[in-house]
TrEMBL record:
It is a multi-pass membrane protein. Component of the ubiquinol-cytochrome c reductase complex (complex III or cytochrome b-c1 complex) that is part of the mitochondrial respiratory chain. The b-c1 complex mediates electron transfer from ubiquinol to cytochrome c. Contributes to the generation of a proton gradient across the mitochondrial membrane that is then used for ATP synthesis. This is Cytochrome b. Belongs to the cytochrome b family. A ubiquinone binds at residue 197.
Length: 373
């Protein structure tokens, strides 16, 4: 009689059957894990010298940059690491949309969308912490959107602020949230991996069988290592040569409630939703559209019927996907433009197309079978 040896978790992870046809697009998850770890590490060191005191916050950030040994590097890596995190997060979501992961792995997709929402919240509260002009006014504008909710809107805004305006209480709360939320993201990421490994990864054709699969190690660990090197080079380029290219010049000025910036806008990774918000004249309608622009990702698994047509063999699906990507990029550009014509008018049809493309994606693969047959 042969005894079956129970594999420990590390052996089970390294020996996970993985499709041989994995492309570079499947490196996104491991890269996001690396970036999350680096964000937590750099944030930990920055918190040792950061002061969450409204009168000294901006000065403490300058102190970190100028006086703390290596503080400028940690600050640059942390600020640009957030942008890189969202770059690969959007690439990861785009890969899931293109290869229809929301159909083959709906539970993994739902947890992934939750990670996306928590990451957006973490980035927002973190953007307020430097207490620059754009940080202060961005927090004022975005949190004030809660007041559009009927009946409870105004009390809810004051509860979030901890007063009648963005101030010391707001800064304390956002600092606490920004410190604890990355660990929530880490926990959700672990759940994301559990659901992923429960069924296994798909290949570009959407197949789930184990016929053409190989152990994860050493084939894909080395492939992930190459992705880590690419991310490392991007970190070095941003941290040493272009540290402020993704930031806003207004944040070099200390926050002042007496001076309003000419053009208030969030970080670049929120601009697509900001453009949707601005193009709707009704405040409540704009807030609903803003929320739906992200929450709509939860609806995509409703198209799951255990059937999938590979995108490579469906030109119409490719047209819808690349059209959605183009609209997303245009909305991101419009969100950075001034609130004037023709940008306001142009944002309206782009918003309609954005939701229309998602509506078409929700249609079941049966629709595509009928359409191309």
């Amino acid at each position: 009689m042969y005894k079956v040896r129970q594999l420990n978790p590390s052996e089970a992870l390294l020996g996970l059957p993985s499709p041989v046809s994995f492309s570079i697009w499947w490196n996104g998850g491991s890269i996001l894990g690396l970036l999350l770890g680096l964000q937590i590490l750099t944030g930990l060191f920055l918190s040792m010298h950061y002061t969450a005191d409204m009168t000294n916050t901006f000065a403490s950030v300058i102190h970190i940059i100028r006086d703390i040994p290596g503080g400028w590097l940690f600050r640059n890596l942390h600020a640009n690491g957030a942008s890189l995190f969202f770059v690969f997060l959007y690439l990861h979501i785009g890969r899931g949309l293109y290869y229809q992961s929301y159909i083959t792995q709906p539970h993994t997709w739902m947890v992934g969308v939750t990670i996306f929402l928590v990451s957006m919240g973490t980035a927002f509260v973190g953007y307020v912490l430097p207490w620059g002009q754009m940080s202060f006014w961005g927090a004022t504008v975005i949190t004030n959107l809660i007041s559009a909710v009927p009946y409870i809107g105004n009390p809810a805004v004051e509860w979030v602020w901890g007063g009648f305006s963005v101030g010391q209480s707001t800064l304390n709360r956002f600092f606490s949230l920004h410190f604890i939320m990355p660990f929530l993201i880490a926990g959700l990421s672990a759940l994301h991996l559990i659901f992923l490994h429960e069924k296994g990864s798909t290949n570009p054709l959407g197949e789930m069988n184990h016929v053409s699969k190989v152990p994860f190690h050493p084939y894909f660990t080395w492939k992930d290592f190459v992705g880590f090197l690419v991310v490392g080079m991007m970190f070095v380029s941003l941290g040493f040569f272009y540290p402020f290219i993704l930031g806003d010049p207004e944040n070099f000025n200390e926050a002042s409630s007496m001076v309003t910036p000419v053009h208030i806008q969030p970080e670049w990774y929120f601009l697509f939703a900001y453009a949707i918000l601005r193009c709707i004249p009704n405040k409540l309608g704009g807030v609903i559209a803003l929320a739906c622009s992200v929450v709509i990702l939860y609806v995509l698994p409703a198209s799951a019927n255990n059937k999938i047509i590979p995108s490579s063999f469906t030109p119409i699906y490719q047209f819808i996907f690349w059209g959605l990507l183009s609209v997303f990029l245009i909305l991101t550009w419009l969100g950075a433009c001034p609130i004037e014509e023709p940008y306001i008018t142009l944002a309206v049809p782009m918003t309609i197309l954005y939701f229309l493309f998602y509506l078409i994606l929700v249609m079941t693969p049966t629709f595509w079978i009928k359409l191309i047959s």
